Each structure stands twice: as structure tokens, then as C-alpha cells.
Amino acid sequence: QVHLVESGGGLVQPGGSLRLSCVASGSIFSIYTMGWYRQAPGKQRELVATITSFRRTNYADSVKGRFTISRDNAKNTVYLQMNSLKPEDTAVYYCNAHMRSVSGEYDYWGQGTQVTVSS
């Protein structure tokens, strides 16, 4: 079995910062692209940022210059540093990873972590 577990969400005031972490565990052979997505109430899930195994990054226009995605391959972990947070960043944030495991090659999702930006 393969699992993705997020942590680091919470309540923060506008202009504040949070750092999300996501750890992959299980019988993993390779981890390719990892990323963060978010879903606000009443809206579709949207891409926030992705990072390839060669650390090439991609960001949604709405978070460019404020969010930074990084990964530690030795720890099977991806991070999302979120600065200058705005109320519109409020959402459930989901970790995603394209991985090859004993079960095959699939996209995996974490359970989500709530980020609320409010004064």
C-alpha cells in the first residue's frame, strides 16, 4: 500500500505564512512529479504547483511569487511554502504524486489539509 499524508494546514491571518508538507510512504519504487492542488467550497479542484523529479516547477498564476514548492527526494516529501496569504487562498489542499510501486504506476492523492485565511 502507498500513502500520502499531508500536514501543516491551519488558520492564518491575511498576509501570514504556512508551510505544508506531504510524505509518501509504502512500497514505492519511484516518485515522479509531485504537486499540490486545492479545492475551495463550491469550486472545482485546481492546480496550485507541481515539481518534477528534476525539480522543474510549475505554478498557477494566482500563486506565482507567493508560493514555493520544493521536494526532498531522500525523505519522499514535497513541501509548499505559502507566503502573503490571501482570503481567496482558503481551501482544502491536496498532495498528489505520480509514483511507481509494487502495484504499478499511478497517481496518488492525500486526504487533504484545510487552510483558512481569515482575520
Describe the structure.
Strand 9 and strand 10 form a beta hairpin. By secondary structure, this protein is mainly beta. The strands form two sheets. Strands 2, 4, 5, 6, 9, 10 and 11 form a seven-stranded mixed beta sheet that branches. The chain contains no helices and eleven strands. The chain has strands spanning 2-7, 10-12, 18-26, 28-39, 46-51, 57-59, 67-72, 77-82, 91-101, 104-109, 113-117. The mean pLDDT is 96.
Name the features.
119 residues, mainly beta, single chain, 0% helix
In total, the number of strands is 11
Beta content: over 45%
Query: Which stretches of 5+ consecutive residues score pLDDT under 50?
Result: none
What is the terminal-to-terminal distance?
40 Å
Order of helices and strands: EEEEEEEEEEE
Proportion of residues in helical segments:
under 10%
What structural class is derived from the secondary structure elements? mainly beta
The count of helical stretches stands at 0
What's the overall average pLDDT, rounded?
A: 96
Q: What summary fits the major beta sheet?
A: 7 strands, mixed
Radius of gyration: 14 Å
| Overall body shape | globular
